UniProtKB/TrEMBL annotation, chains A, B:
It comes from Cecembia lonarensis (strain CCUG 58316 / KCTC 22772 / LW9). Keywords: Membrane, Transmembrane, Transmembrane helix. It is a multi-pass membrane protein. Belongs to the SLC13A/DASS transporter (TC 2.A.47) family. DIT1 subfamily. This is Inner membrane protein ybhI.
Length: 460, 460
């Protein structure tokens, strides 16, 4: 009860505070609503669904946002892509294909939780350069992770999610941030950032990106499963008989069924379309709708199956609302305004400290963002120019900010659309993401800005 | 199989037909996709979900619609209002308030299916003048109808929907079209139409609208439950012991529980806000979000409850897609173009025949519309001006077209957002709406254009 009161009080104080000079008063109001909504989730006052719904109601009734603005997230293509990816993933599981792929994975790497985690990370790293949409990539990886968990008897519906599934899900979720940092083409906005720094004489392309990213990303990827094993451990770490069980199970299943074959075909089609989407201008979300359409057309998945997936609706509601608010905050110029204020504040610091503070604040800012793209567009330019003005090492700063734009995805539940899919599974709670996601982001920050920075400094 | 082929063939023929002179080729392509999607539902080739998803995919991949246009329905406020109304209705049922209201109704009118049907219609008629949004009104009525059905042991999950529920649902769904026709203020677009004919010297206001509407609407409302009893009969028509059962059941339940009281309070708040929304500029959809927020805040309804409501997601997907397509068809000028063509074609008919043909075609056109508002905006002006040019009785034509804009809501599943809620219940299938909804629309057309027209002619 005192928590509700505290959040409420904070909201009132922020609301009636004098608006920072030069800032749009509407931007300040929206910031108040947004930050109070998020804090009410962090401090477990409200569920993320309730916090979002109340945030929307407040924003509309105080005329901070127009109804159209407030509702706009529901038709955002990233939000719809997530909903479709959710349904397609469920169809993959239902057809039995998910389990088959999981069993194949377990057969090879299934002796320990760590082995499975590494094999999932590796799969992600290898397919990432061909996937400009990390959201679409999560749509591919999620059903496999889900099935691996299920095949090992770890299921949130039976209360056994902590047995293995939670650990694997979290590893894979955080891993997508790393695989995105590894390749220039693994996230839609990486090339945009690279283009933005060319004005500062920094030339970033596919080859020098992967070279610069390789060392810190490999270190982070090698440590990630092990760190999570310590702070967020699965109940079973070793499954010595899992490989032979998987082998036997695969034998029992025999050849692929009609539904498995069809699903595999659709899956391959989607993977191809998604990885070529940038090149040929194929709409990623319409592709996902096509995938669902084909699954329904072939009867592999039915409207009756979707009727059970209310979770997708819950996910859609909170994510669409937070998405719209964060985008409006960006459109109203809130983010860049504060970015400029900060760059002024750090003038008096020593150069190395200013460098670290700049990157750290850039990362912290992701608490306010629902979209990595919007984050980069709003702040990357501001922070690079502040760094250049202060005479910092611009190439290093550019890489550190660009890598951060990827690895900080795990800082909040809404920090990346990928997370949304993993959380919807029930294996990971919203509060756990705030806790361990924040911790991992800090951990990645340290690796990239020590080992990574030294490596970048050495090779360039 | 031959049906799939037939629909496919029709689509190909329409697609490659020469575009009617003066029409935007994109409008013709979209019309082809839209009409083929709808026909594939009418002829049971595809489910309405699959037809919509495939329609969206075709529209985007042929570049008939941009992805943004195709997805826009998901953030439309009417679509979101329906989704929220769906969830609030479920919360009303869960709290027990729905059943209590249903038992009170059964206690008084529950001796026969007909008695219940009339009492539901009457409730609707009485609250309608205060509800400028028929969609919001369906949100109020639906949970009561649902609970009446459940209290009588009629439940689609047990295969007993035809026992009583289907009949009551259909009566109430068609009844909303009649209650909307009864009052100038019972549907958002009625006053718009009234304003549009003032240029022709026809002065329509609250009092003469209800006077003109009273006779045909009363006749239609009196006949509706009886007609449906013949063509779409419930399995049980008489429930002589229902009243005493309801009385006993109410006694057993005792006073209202905490959750019932809270739900009732929220319900009254919503009804008040919805009925005053026009007056004070309160956003109807944000009000619905507020309703859901309060239900979640008080714990009457929980995120876990919503996780079971995948049906709301299915409904949202197909309705949002059809909504967006129909609106785009309107924006591209398809509707008014064809309206003008038709008005030229009927020049040679006798005046009374031209009058009836004009109204009839206006009604038929509703197969293409998902929004009654868009229908009126697109065609009402065209048809009135065509009638005036032909020297028809403009006052009568104005009323006949305005009444039609309300009663034809039941012609297709997507003909009004209200229907969507009733269909989502599982008591009424999409195919049944095409069949019996079409029949009822024809029936209403006859009543309004005989009895109604004579009455309007006599009083003015």
């Amino acid at each position: 009860m005192y928590k509700i009161f505290g959040v409420f009080l904070l909201g009132v104080i922020l609301w009636f505070m004098p608006v920072p000079e030069g800032m749009d008063p509407q931007a300040w109001q929206l910031f108040t609503i947004f930050i109070v909504s998020i804090l009410s989730v962090v401090f477990r006052v409200f569920s993320i669904l309730l916090a979002s719904v109340l945030g929307l109601v407040l924003a509309v009734f105080t005329q901070t946002l127009s109804p159209d603005q407030a509702f706009s997230g529901f038709s955002n293509d990233i939000v719809l892509l997530i909903v479709m990816a959710f349904l397609i993933a469920k169809a993959m599981v239902k057809s039995g294909l998910g389990i088959r792929m999981a069993l194949l994975l377990i057969k090879r790497f299934g002796k320990s939780a760590l082995g499975l985690a590494y094999s999932l990370l590796m799969t992600d790293m290898l397919i990432a350069p061909a996937f400009p949409s990390n959201t679409a990539r999560s749509g591919v990886l999620f059903p496999i992770v889900f099935s691996v968990a299920q095949a090992n008897g770890s299921d949130p519906e039976k209360g056994t999610e902590k047995k293995l599934g939670s650990y694997l899900m979290f590893t894979s979720m955080a891993g997508i941030g790393l695989s995105s940092a590894m390749w220039l083409t693994a996230m839609a906005v990486n090339p945009v950032g690279a283009a933005m720094v060319s004005g500062y004489g920094v030339d970033i392309h596919f080859a020098n990106w992967v070279l610069a990213a390789s060392v810190p990303t490999m270190v982070a990827a090698l440590l990630l499963p092990w760190v999570l094993l310590k702070v967020y451990p699965p109940e079973i770490k070793f499954t010595p008989s899992a490989a032979s069980f998987a082998k036997e199970e695969l034998k029992k299943r025999g050849g692929m069924s009609r539904n498995e074959k069809i699903t595999l075909g659709i899956f391959i089609l989607l993977v191809m379309a998604w990885s070529l989407s940038e090149l040929f201008g194929i709409d990623r979300t319409a592709t996902a709708f096509l995938g669902l359409g084909l699954l329904l057309l072939t009867g592999v998945y039915t409207p009756a199956d979707i009727r059970k997936e209310g979770e997708a609706l819950v996910t859609m509601i909170w994510f669409a609302i937070l998405f719209a608010m964060s985008m409006a905050l960006y459109d109203l110029g809130f983010m860049s305004h504060v970015g400029l204020l900060i760059s002024k504040e750090i003038e008096m610091l020593s150069k190395p400290l200013a460098f670290l503070v700049l990157v750290f604040i850039y990362v912290l800012f992701h608490y306010l963002f629902v979209s990595q793209t919007a984050h980069l567009l709003a702040l990357f330019g501001v922070f690079i120019s502040a760094g250049a003005d202060l005479g910092l090492y611009v190439t290093g700063l550019a890489f550190m900010l660009l890598f951060a734009t990827n690895y900080f995805s795990v800082i909040t539940p809404q920090g990346s659309s990928c997370n949304v899919l993993y959380i919807s599974s029930g294996y990971i709670s919203v509060e756990e993401v705030y806790k361990y996601g924040g911790l991992l982001t800090l951990f990645f920050f340290v690796i990239y800005n020590t080992v990574g920075l030294a490596w970048v400094f050495w090779i360039f």
